[in-house]
């Protein structure tokens, strides 16, 4: 009996230099990816992610391609995808937080900075990811005790996971442009799923809506939580920050055939924040 890989093939992770993106790259490597492309504006962070993957001592470690750059730049996005001839999975993690200001106090420069990454940059990447995936052959779901016809029905040509936010669903004071950018990611996800999940494309597109996650964006070097986030943590019934690995595990599930009937979804992983 052959070993079962949850994912097998080629994956791309944006924002892989730290936090959620790094955790996703690591989890995909453990799950069976053979080739991995990682990108981030943080070159040193990418090297650290690559070193972490190498240090795992996996029986079948992926070939990791480190491509630093800023997805807000159309020129870089063209350069990035010029180096990716084939793609089975993509997890779009790159994103930035906004300033604590209500709409009337936000200037155009800040609006453009945030949206150039959170929405426009993600959209440019998704566009290129779809162009690659539509050329793929349908791959049956490779799992134990799945009959051939069922494996084919559950097959896919690709899977895309976009990182949105719990704030794509609910509002937050002094965060209008950030919440709007993440709502845009969810809306893009739903509409792309309508266009690309059906035959002949068979590409599933989903989003994850994390709560407050312990990353360099939300904590300082000592691991202390910024004051602006303490209230949000206390709103969630679990009363703790989420871990990057918890988002990464969800991303691997959405990439894999285990989630073969899930598309256009916004999977909320927030410790219960939005129910409160």
From TrEMBL:
Keywords: Oxidoreductase. SUPFAM superfamilies: NAD(P)-binding Rossmann-fold domains. The keyword Oxidoreductase applies. The keyword Oxidoreductase applies. One of its GO terms (molecular function) is oxidoreductase activity. Belongs to the short-chain dehydrogenases/reductases (SDR) family. This is 2-(R)-hydroxypropyl-CoM dehydrogenase.
